[in-house]
Amino acid sequence: MTAEPLLSVDNLTVQFRTDTGWLTAIEDVGFSLGAGETLGIVGESGSGKSVTALSLLRLHATATTRIPTGTITFAGQNLLRLPSRALRRIRGGEIAMIFQDPMSSLNPVLTIADQIGETLALHQGLDRAAARRRAIELLDLVRIADAAHRVDAYPHQLSGGQRQRVMIAIAIACRPKLLIADEPTTALDVTIQAQILDLLRDLQAELGMSVILISHDLGVIAEFARRVLVMYAGRVVEAAPATTLFRRPMHPYTSGLMQAIPPLDADVHRLPTIQGSIPDPARRIPGCRFSPRCAEAQPTCRITAPSLVPVGPDHLARCPPRAGAAR
Amino acid sequence: MNLRVLNRLALRLAQAVPVLLVVAVVTFLLMHLLPGDPAVVIAGPEAGAEAIERIRHQLGLDRSLPEQLLLWLASLARGDFGRSLMLNQPVLVALGERLPVTLSLTLVSFAITVPVGVALGVLAARFRNTWLDSAVMFLALVGVSVPSFWIAILSVILFSVILGWLPASGYVPLSDGLLPWLLALLQPAAMLALFQIGFLARMARSATLDVLDQDYIRTARAKGVSEWSTIAKHAFRNTLIPVVTATGIILSLLMGGSVVIEQVFALPGVGRLIVQAILTRDYPLVQGTLLALAFLFVAINLLVDVIYTWVDPRVRYG
Amino acid sequence: MAEETDDALAPRRRFQLIRRLARHRSFRIGFIIVAALTLAAIFAPLISKFDPFEMRARIRFRPPQAAYWFGTDNFGRDVFTRCLYGARLSLTIGLGTALLSGAIGAAAGIASAQFRRIDAVMMRLMDGLMAFPAIILAIGLAAAMGPQIGSLIIALSVAYIPRTARIVRASALVVRELEFVDAARVAGASSLRIIWRHLLPNCMGPLLVQLTFVFAYAILAEAALSFLGIGPPPPAPSWGNIIAEGRDQAVDSWWIMFFPGLAISLATLGMNLLGDGLRDVLDPRLKVET
Questions:
Q1: Does residue A85 surpass a pLDDT of 80?
Q2: Of B8, B42, B77, which residue sits at a domain end?
Q3: Suppose C94 and one of A36, A250, B294, C218 were both cysteines; which one would form an S-S bond, judging by CB atoms 3.0 to 4.6 Å apart?
Q4: B190 domain residue, yes or no
Q5: Inter-chain CB proximity B255 and C254 less than 8 Å
Q6: Same structural domain for residues B64 and B183?
């Protein structure tokens, strides 16, 4: 990579406190993202993709979370070392975030104007009237009809899709350099999903921001991201440009995910699924964490933990047998 | 106020009617459980059987129970709560004299309870799992565990007898000035508030923690809002919703507790009245006072409902 | 089917619950306090060599000292001994109220949840009873029924039944919508069987939690009633009437009313801690922090 990336994450490990001790939610996660780029993070629920996203802004509960290793470098500064005051300036300013459930992510007792206005007041120092005017513009921008009236509504008066648009409006209010979208369409109807993705794509082009899109849905990722990170049980198992990944998936887990996407052109009665389910994070699995579910697992897979190795140009995977075959 | 709010109020009013009816019937039955015969009490120790019979007839006690109940309900509907035997005056008049004292006590105590209880609860939640949280929650637990009249007597010994800072007993009407009124009520109200403060602090803490776990709090933090503003702006109003709901319970507890506290501080309120009435077997007075208190309570709950509507916009607008 | 799995899981689950309770700090403290007070009440004659009723004019108003730990009262009776024996009455009233209001409250709550026709009437009745502040209702009833322990227990129970019934009804309403209840219904189980095998066991958690708090309230309420002169009459000691009797000497002989009040506070604190622990462990919905 020639230019300094906007965001680079290295060796990030996050642990949560539980009744029985510290539980490792993600381990040794690393990736980088240039200005204007789009990264997709895909994985089942529990794979650690949301934990990764929340750690970028240190949104985990401080009392029960620790980050023993790792750096998160954004625009030249390590976010993990930043004092909380400086971090707050970045939150909602240079890095914004939207969440999965637009029903619960908006405060039920504040109007839309209040909630968009808060970001504007915090980061741009706008007064109430100016913030309200800007909120209306933003609602227009996210294509909410009748913005001038809708701005005074309470969240429960809007539909799910509209609420997610409001969340997006809040996120882009201060023209962030990076937008993190954590499962932004999962809670929505299929038709609304497509509209929201279109909106995000247009806004990205218009505002020139980088986007990290997190989803369990490889279809959504395929449509949106240029580069893809596949996560499984708290680790990155494969990283590649979207086109490479979809043409030539290297990790058996990625292949499994891909077979589970319903093809558009054929009638299928039963989609192939990956055997078994994601392991309980409290249980340590020796060797490759996917090996208990992997059809191609070899004896060594269950003993030595594989590392992420290059398997092609700009293509990493955590599967030694396949990597060996590729070479 | 819009149509929705009015509808809701109308519904609540309609729901209050059967409650009031139950209250009246329960009070009536309660009084007929009382051992002894009111007619004997009224007639006095020297009265003959004939005189007692005459009084019984006058009071309608010789009729059947359902008949008496209907008669009583009819007089209630006319606003006639009966006449006190002990005080020889209408129950409503006696109540009218005593109610300001009890209301003053309850009001001052409520004014102490709510800010202190909510502040302690929010503070404990903000510093959850720290020593401050533990200390506040232990104090709250002590508050709900200590008998109010006992701590009140101890307080009188300390602040009135030994230090001489506050009056030990008696009531000063508001018409004599705000400060004397407040000074007379300060100690009883504070003692009365202890239990409710503990109750409210525990509740406010868990309500705040609940709210702090919500997704929209995460949204606020992701926007760059500071920890305290998150609590003040985003959590507090949502915390208030369960707190407002609890206001009814708190007022009920305060009214119940005032009976005991009025006794300790010799305040001439409704609580003292009801105890005197029970001890002297003044049936109409007991009946009327119980009923009035229950009616008051139902009215307060209606009021709470209005406030609730104001705090939670989900109720205000469809 | 559903019932078999229920049975197979029950003992293990119960064991786990006990282990989690034993690990819970406030439950442990509460349990120790309550157990200690209960033992003290049971073994009162072994702990104190004095007679709680014996009046000795020569040793009136003695302050706390080695021979009389809590001092003596205006009749020369040993306050420590009276507190020990008073624990019997106070704890009996607390336990009796918890059991009686629990039994009736559970029956009323479950009947409301299971039979919709009873529900409307029952809940209006409970609303009506709840319109009286609990203590005032108890005062009225206690006065009406006379000052025996039995009637005190009944009076306090009536005052606390509505809240208990509401809690049981609320959890029974949730349980009866669950699949295994439907399954039992489809399998032809009678209403009574559904209540006994499914609703009641699944409401036990919230009920138990509520009853520990009722126990605590009842101890406080007994004290308040005694103080107002409507409680168990002297000379039989209860914590409440020892305070009531000692009140007139509160300034000069503070110990007479001080120690029984401390005993009440301790017992109530213990029950409250116990209830908090139970709630954390049995009712994970309400669990906020470990």
A1: yes
A2: B77
A3: C218
A4: yes
A5: no
A6: no
Task: Tell me if C251 sits within 8 A of C202, measured CB to CB.
Answer: no
Among the three residues B31, B47, B77, which one is the final residue of a domain in this structure?
A: B77
Q: Is residue B82 situated within a structural domain?
A: no
| Interface list for B 156-175 with C (CB within 8 A) | 156-157, 161
Q: Tell which residue, B110, B112, B118, has the closest CA to residue B205.
A: B118
Both B257 and B310 in one domain: the answer is yes
Closest chain C CA to residue B209: C288
Q: What is the pLDDT of residue A203?
A: 92
Residue C130: list chain B partners with CB under 8 A: 252
Task: Give C112-131 pLDDT, tens digit per residue.
Answer: 888 888 888 888 888 888 88
Residues of chain A whose C-beta is under 8 A from some C-beta in B? 57, 59, 63, 88-93, 96-97, 99, 101, 104-110, 118-119, 122-123, 154, 156-157, 167, 170
DSSP H or E run through A232: strand A227-232
ipTM field: 0.84
Using CA atoms, how far apart are residues A103 and A81, in angstroms rounded to an integer?
33
In angstroms, the CA B115 to CA C10 distance is 45
**Full domain range(s) for residue B70:** 18-77
In a shared domain, residues B180 and B131 = yes
Which residues in chain C have their CB less than 8 angstroms from residue B257's CB? 135
Residues A54, A31: Cα–Cα separation, whole Å: 15
Judged by CB atoms closer than 8 Å, whether chains meet at B147 and C289 is answered as no
Q: Does B290 touch chain C (CB under 8 A)?
A: yes
Residue B312 distance to chain A (closest CA, Å): 6
Structure tokens at B256: 């119940």
Query: In this complex, which of A104, A156, A170 lies closest to B223 when CB atoms are compared?
Result: A170
CA B268 from centroid of its chain's CA atoms: 16
CATH number of the domain within which C158 lies: 1.10.3720.10
What one-letter code names the amino acid at A24?
T
For the record, the structure tokens of A75 come out as: 């625009």
> pLDDT digit string (tens) for C32-72?
999 999 998 888 787 777 777 777 777 777 788 777 777 77
The answer to pTM > 0.80 is no
Number of domains chain B is built from:
2
In a domain, B122, yes or no: yes
Domain count, chain C: 1
| Chain A residue whose CA is closest to B128 | A63
Which structural domain, as residue segments, surrounds residue C19?
A: 2-286
Q: Judge whether A134 and A173 are in contact, CB under 8 Å.
A: yes
